[in-house]
Each structure stands twice: as structure tokens, then as C-alpha cells.
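Sample intake sheet
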Amino acid sequence: MLWAAELLVEIGSPPLTTFMDPTLTEANQKIEDALERFRQELASIRAGRANPSLIENIPVDAYGAKMKLVEVATLAAPQPSLLTAQVWDVSLVQAVIKAIQESSLGLNPAAEGNLIRLPIPALTEERREEFVKLTHQKMEAARVQIRQLRQDQRQDWDKAKNSGEIGEDELFRREKILQELIDKAMAQVEDLGKLKEAELMQV
């Protein structure tokens, strides 16, 4: 049986559509980008089982810039309740520890050379409920962003119609395809959110 976090990846992997009208390419890419951000935000919400996706996007101060943890260390989950980060450059170990401590994950890193161990404590019922609420907030934010993308695109097309660049039929055709993309994106947000909620409630 696949864990919910793995199912998140599976659901998120197919493109919204197998073809793309050139006039919808930009809109489709913006929708895909919004969904990808949503997936990353869900991955950063801690469940009771260790998964490297939980920490891979933690920003680390490295070499005068902000880098993702996954860009400076090899991440693994050797046990269901343990994550490890093998930092490639030992000079970055303290920066990685600080970044993990400053994240909202509530993890306590312990370093052994350039290997950082991160025990994953079991979630209390209260924390599970808090994270479910946070998931719902992330879902609504993603829906709002996707709806705003639709509105912005329609405004652009309305301007093109009013200036005579496109006709009424072309506007209708574009809006119909755009709505199909939006509907599929909204369904993905719903599915991803439900899977995350199920993962959080697993005891």
C-alpha cells in the first residue's frame, strides 16, 4: 500500500492536459506552477512518518545565498521515525542545524560529524488537528490563486476582443479550454488535500 506522501507525488505527476493550445500555454504553466507550490507546501506539513520531502525545501544560508536543504545534503529516512541529512560540506553543518531549528517543524537536530539526525516524534491529537486546519488553509489559498489566474487571463482576452485582435467565437473557445484546465486543477487541489489529511490522521 502506498503511503499518502507517495500518493501525493503520483497524483501530482501527470500534466493537466496531454495537449496544449498555444494560446493557453502560458496560463497552463502558471496553473502548473501554482499546483507545484501547493504540493511543496503540503510536503512541509509534518505527519507522523519520516519522509525526506518534509525537510528538502528548508532554506539554508550557504555560500552567501539561500539554498534548499536538498541542494547541500543527501536526505534519507532510514527508519519510519528518523530522518537524516548527510551534509556534503562540513562547514555548512551548523547553518543546516540552525535552518532546521528555525523552521516550523518542531524538530531537534543532532549532529555526528557531517551527519544530522532528526528524530520524528509522534504527533499528538492536538497537533494533528492543527495540521489538518493548516492543510485546509493551504488548500483555500491554492484555490484563490488559481481563480485569480483565471480572472487575469480572461481580462487579457477581453482586452484582445475589445481591440479586435480576436472575435467572440475565439474568446468563447479559449474560455472553455481555460475552464477545463481550472476544473482539473481544482480537482487536484482537493485530492492532494484529502490525501494529506488522511496522512496526518494516520496513527
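Comment: Confidence is low (pLDDT under 50) at residues 1-18. Residues 16 and 181 are 7 Å apart (CA to CA).
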